[in-house]
Design goal:
The protein folds into 2 domains: 62 residues; 188 residues, Vaccinia Virus protein VP39 (Rossmann fold). The model has no long low-confidence stretch (mean pLDDT 96). The strands form 2 sheets. A 7-stranded mixed β-sheet has the order 5-4-3-6-7-9-8, sandwiched between helices. The protein has a two-stranded antiparallel ribbon with strand order 1-2. The chain is 39% helix and 20% strand. Strand 8 and strand 9 form a beta hairpin. The chain has 277 residues and is an alpha/beta fold.
């Protein structure tokens, strides 16, 4: 079957999805390991039967709701391409706000210690380390399976100023202090119907929900982090769009100063932070 016909078949099978054509293209690119420009230029080329079968299987799985990032095994984030598996949360564009706010607080031309708590695929840590090569970044995660993905991403991207450690939140930061601690912790309350929608149905539950208290992980980190922040150091969190006031309250209640909330590109409260006095 020709490239153009196989793509048309994929689009038809994914008709219920708003981005059917884009997703069909991404899946075929993944199978053939070709660029979108190649697909256009070679639209009349014949696709080998094994590749066509592999593509149809991916299309069927996507039609069943599996995240496209898990099917292709990759996701772009802050100008880097990350490998992702079902062992890690899929990096999302809104998390780039957290990275940008961290970068604003990390000098370009000086040494600096940074921690990323709950690193998952390594997205936040690697994006920061790539932009700030003089920074020493420590990335922690309780999941060894997630850390394997993060270490693989670091090696593949040739980013060497990140150290990965296993442990829950600050447990893997013995007596160290950091100028910036960033985290995208789980913040969806257990039982929230949102957990049963879209890609979230397939993502690791521990990366999505801390339990019945949606701010539970944020409370723990805000308490633990004070012992690991340098004077004037910043603690930054991603959180849910309706949690800004709650997170600000957590930070203020634990003695952080200059507490703020930043909005994402869709004008939703997305990242909050505070400074250790």
């Amino acid at each position: 079957m020709r490239v153009r016909d196989l793509l048309a078949e994929g689009v038809k099978a994914l008709f219920a999805r708003a981005d059917a054509r884009r997703e069909a293209v991404l899946l075929l690119r993944s199978v053939l390991d070709k660029s979108e420009a190649w697909l256009v230029a070679h639209a009349d080329d014949t696709v080998a039967a094994p590749n066509a079968a592999a593509y149809r299987e991916l299309v069927e799985r996507r039609a069943g709701g599996e995240p496209i990032a898990y099917l292709t095994g990759t996701r772009g984030f802050h100008a880097i391409e990350l490998r992702v598996t079902p062992n890690v949360l899929i990096p999302r564009a809104e998390t780039e706000v957290l990275v940008d706010l961290a970068l604003q607080r990390i000098p370009v031309d000086a040494d600096c210690a940074v921690a990323d708590l709950g690193t998952g695929s390594g997205a936040i840590a690697l994006a920061i380390a790539r932009q700030r090569p003089r920074a020493r970044v420590v990335a922690t995660d309780v999941s060894e399976a997630a850390l394997e993905v993060a270490r693989d991403n670091a090696a593949r991207l040739k980013i060497g100023n990140v150290e990965f450690r296993q442990g829950a939140w600050c447990a893997a930061l013995p007596a160290e202090r950091f100028e910036v601690i960033a985290s995208n912790p789980p913040y969806v309350a257990a039982g929230d119907p949102y957990l049963h929608e879209g890609d979230l149905r397939f993502e690791p539950p521990l990366a999505l929900s801390p339990g019945t208290d949606a701010l539970g992980a944020i409370r723990v980190i805000a308490s633990q982090a004070k012992a690991h922040l340098a004077t004037g150091g910043w603690l930054l969190f991603e959180h849910g769009i309706d949690q800004g006031a709650g997170v600000r309250g957590v930070l203020t209640g634990r003695g952080y100063r200059d507490v703020f909330t930043e909005r994402d590109l869709e004008d939703r409260e997305r990242v909050s932070g505070g400074q250790r006095a």
